[in-house]
Specification:
This protein is an all-alpha fold. It is built from six helices and no strands. Keywords: Cell inner membrane, Cell membrane, Membrane, Transmembrane, Transmembrane helix.
């Protein structure tokens, strides 16, 4: 559990650093960093319990998307203002690097294995974002429609 706490704190600090580099100001950077920590916590806990990459990354990206949707509605800013920074720890940059590394080293079987793993991770992140975003759009559409009917 101590390792997970260190990883969560590291993801928060790393995301905050990215925010500084990309000139994200004020509380948005802090909120994005905190969301990154939440996402990494969900991923780490599910991975530790033995869930597959697909399930762990889908759940983490779904959690981050819910967090971003709620925060964006409260602060009246676009969802992507929080969604992109929160996803930084989950992005499979290492997988992409090692896929290319194995190709350069002429180890095609390892490259294919790592490439498929990276593709699954990327796809599960996209599925998590797409699912939650779609359902939140439907939900807010229904809420607005009911509010208009009650007027």
């Amino acid at each position: 559990m101590r390792v997970i706490i260190i990883q969560v704190i590291s993801s928060i600090v790393a995301t905050y650093g990215f925010g500084i580099i990309f000139n994200v100001r004020g509380m948005k950077n802090l909120y994005g960093s905190f969301g990154a920590g939440i996402g990494w916590l969900v991923y780490s806990l599910l991975s530790e319990k033995g869930f597959t990459y697909f399930i762990a990354y889908t759940a983490a990206s779904s959690t981050i998307t819910i967090y971003s949707e709620i925060l964006s509605r409260r602060l009246k800013v676009p969802t992507v203002s929080f969604l992109y920074p929160c996803m930084i720890p989950l992005v499979p940059g290492g997988g992409i690097y090692y896929t290319m590394y194995y190709i350069v080293q002429d180890s095609i079987s390892k490259a294919v294995e790592k490439g498929i793993e990276t593709f699954i991770i990327s796809g599960s992140i996209a599925i998590g974002i797409l699912t939650v975003s779609t359902f939140s759009q439907i939900y807010y559409y229904i809420v607005k429609k009911k509010a208009k009917e009650n007027l």
